[in-house]
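Supplementary Methods, section 5.1.

A reviewer requested that the exact input to the structure prediction be made available. We therefore reproduce it here, unchanged from the version used in the analyses.
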Amino acid sequence: MNTSTLCIAAIQAALEAGELLRRGFGTDFSIESKPEGRQNLVTEYDKAAEELILKKLKLAAPSSNFLAEESGASPGPKDSVLWIIDPLDGTVNFAHQLPFFSVSIAAVVDGVVVAGVVYQPMLKELFVAEKGKGSTCNGKRLQVTTNTSYDRALFSTGFPYNAEDNPLGCIDALSRALNSGFHIRRVGSAALDLSYVAAGRFDAYWEVSLQPWDMAAGLLIVQEAGGKVTNYFDQSIDVSEKSSLLATNGYFHPKILEIICSK
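The structure derived from this sequence is encoded token-by-token as follows.
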């Protein structure tokens, strides 16, 4: 399958899953806690949305590999496309009736993300990127901000479920960033944070311990909008593994790395 076909399949699956989530938002539904960390929740809508996405993508690309948040890895032929899926990124928000969550789907070929889709169903914002063809939101071309002023900059961050363990010094990094005068928000959906960097709403976003499904689609969306994405060691990210992540408009990258990585 060519990249455009993969992108279309991801869009269709994300839109249908997003509509399912939109209808379920604010209703009564079951909520369970995962064993990994406090407030690591899963709802019946996480599972239903993932089932829908897997079904749609298997029909569109039968010989696929899958890596999804709730069901894990489903191996297919070695050289086939790998779909990385978060059916509901921002489950805690969804469970608490905060309308900030998304569906995230990425297509990976030979270790490279070639298509990424993030859908925010409550605002009906569809972020799409295709390798080498740019990023869009509802068809409008995206470009990271050209801002170079820290006084006007708005940054975003997030925390892992084991934040109390201070992995990679994430709590210390936040303190240093705040003491540097940074204006910081927390959305609660990594896929949206990345999409908002691409859209120029945030100048930068950073977080530790992101899973592949948290970042794969959004990473491409930022890159195709002209942004820079690395791990905390200023290296390229392997989207098949857990990683720290910093996404910026490029200008703020060195300074933020210096602050969040200093000892």
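The chain has seven helices and 15 strands. These observations are discussed further in the main text.
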